[in-house]
Amino acid sequence: MEFVPTQIPDVVLIQPRIFEDERGFFLESYQKERFSAAGIHADFVQDNHSASSKGVLRGLHYQVCQPQGKLVRVVVGEVFDVAVDLRRHSWTFGCWVGISLSAKKKNQLWIPPGFAHGFYVTSEMAEILYKATDYYAPQWERSLSWNDPVLGIDWPLTNGELPTLAEKDRRGSLLADTELYD
Predict the structure, then answer these.
(1) 49 among known catalytic residues
(2) Domain ranges of the chain
(3) Is the model's pLDDT at 182 over the cut of 70?
(4) Which numeric CATH code is attached to 2-177?
(5) Of 30, 61, 117, 181, catalytic
(6) Which one is catalytic: 62, 120, 130, 181?
(7) pLDDT tens sequence across 26-49
(8) Cβ within 8 Å of residue 33, ≥6 positions away
(9) Does the active-site annotation cover 61?
(10) CA 13, CA 16: separation in Å to the nearest integer?
(11) In this structure, are residues 42 and 133 in contact, taking their beta carbons and an 8 Å threshold?
(12) pTM value?
């Protein structure tokens, strides 16, 4: 595995070593010792699987209490995956990073606790698997506005069309008005 820091060094792109032959492929998607050696000391407690069609944008979600670190990978299709630093005392507070994750590339993104997370589906369909470091707690879940002009996220919208959003994501808060981590 190769661990590549992004523009926000705590968010890490993980490129697996892929063994392919005429039968198919094999890769390690997680190996605790390798992750620890790369500085990722995560204790995963929950696995999630979602499917979305082209043009769907999910997020930007976070839990103001019980923050979740997430190890995200795409097993069908492709997404533009985004992490926004909401750690009030971080030197990258309010910054975002966006990475294309795809089943073809088999890459993953580590998003530590303290970040809002979302993705936009760029393929006809996408299935996303992610491990979380804390349990889903709907009472603490918040949505940050996907199109906050202060953040200026450069979403690769299909033909410039607005994304398909859940109601909670339509009502997402602007960074200036959102609850933050300490």
Answers:
(1) no
(2) 2-177
(3) no
(4) 2.60.120.10
(5) 61
(6) 130
(7) 999 999 999 999 999 999 999 999
(8) none
(9) yes
(10) 10
(11) yes
(12) 0.94
